[in-house]
Design goal:
By secondary structure, the chain is α/β, with parallel strands linked by helices. 33% of the residues lie in helices and 30% in strands. The strands form four sheets. Strands 1, 4, 5, 6, 7, 8, 10 and 12 form an eight-stranded mixed β-sheet that branches. A three-stranded parallel β-sheet has the order 9-11-13. A two-stranded antiparallel ribbon has the order 2-3. The longest helix is centred in the first third of the chain and has 19 residues. It starts with a strand and ends with a helix. The mean pLDDT is 95. It binds 1-O-pyrophosphono-5-O-phosphono-alpha-D-ribofuranose and uracil. Uracil binds next to α6.
């Protein structure tokens, strides 16, 4: 299932992120902010339990998160740019890492690093990567998270291409995909059009 987070603030910030004139500093800040806003939407169904709280005036019954264990898993490098925003929203969230790059000739994902929380079987995983392009990286990362026994998996991106959404949905139909925009298509190099360019390079200033 694909959910496009079309909140006006998300769309406004995404327009600035896409702009090639946006500075590295602003790009990074906005990626974090949009990640936080998408995380707000993706966690909408977290369970709440009743708890007793003593205000300065009286005792009352409130609601707090029901101890559901979450893990966010950025796909390196570019997924790292979304971590800070989500951590601000959910400070106790555990963070795993999957290092993956696309071979520029074959466009196939290559895993070069992985480190997850030990108790993935008790955790709901949110896989994060700003770009869902051909879908190869996302499918490989979801395969890996399943092998590691993650209790459930959701995928979050800033921009998705229709080609990538189809590949992920066909391979892993039960994994919900959240994104701020469904763009037009991929170009011949596997970049999303109109997209935002190379997310990793823009986040880390490597080009
Ligand atoms: C980008 C992006 C995704 C991947 C998406 O990473 O961050 O991980 O491409 O492409 P796909 O859907 O076609 O697999 P990249 O390979 O540029 O590595 P980087 O994050 O280290 O820059
Ligand atoms: N990776 C990126 O960083 N940008 C794209 O458009 C596609 C993959």
């Amino acid at each position: 299932m694909l959910t496009i987070v079309d909140h006006p603030l998300v769309q406004h910030k995404l327009s600035i992120i896409r702009d090639k004139h946006t500075s590295k500093k602003e790009f990074k800040e906005l990626v974090e902010e949009v990640a936080m806003l998408i995380a707000y939407e993706i966690t909408r169904d977290l369970e709440l339990v009743e708890c007793e709280v003593e205000t300065p005036l009286t005792k009352t019954i409130c609601r707090s998160l029901g101890g559901k264990k979450l893990a966010i898993i950025p796909i390196l490098r570019a997924g790292l740019g979304m971590v800070g925003g989500i951590e601000k929203l959910i400070p106790s969230v555990r963070i795993g890492h999957i290092g993956m790059y696309r071979d520029h000739d074959t466009l196939q994902p290559v895993v070069y690093y992985a480190k997850l929380p030990q108790d993935m079987a008790q955790r709901d995983a949110i896989l994060i990567d700003p770009m869902l392009a051909t879908g190869g990286s996302a499918v490989a990362a979801i395969d890996y998270l399943k092998q590691q026994g993650a209790r459930s998996i959701r995928f979050m991106s800033l921009i998705a291409a229709p080609e990538g959404v189809k590949i992920v949905s066909d391979a892993h139909p039960e994994v919900p995909i959240y994104t701020a925009a469904l763009d037009e298509k991929l170009n011949e190099l596997g970049y999303i059009l109109p997209g935002l360019g190379d997310a990793g390079d823009r986040l880390f200033g490597t080009r």
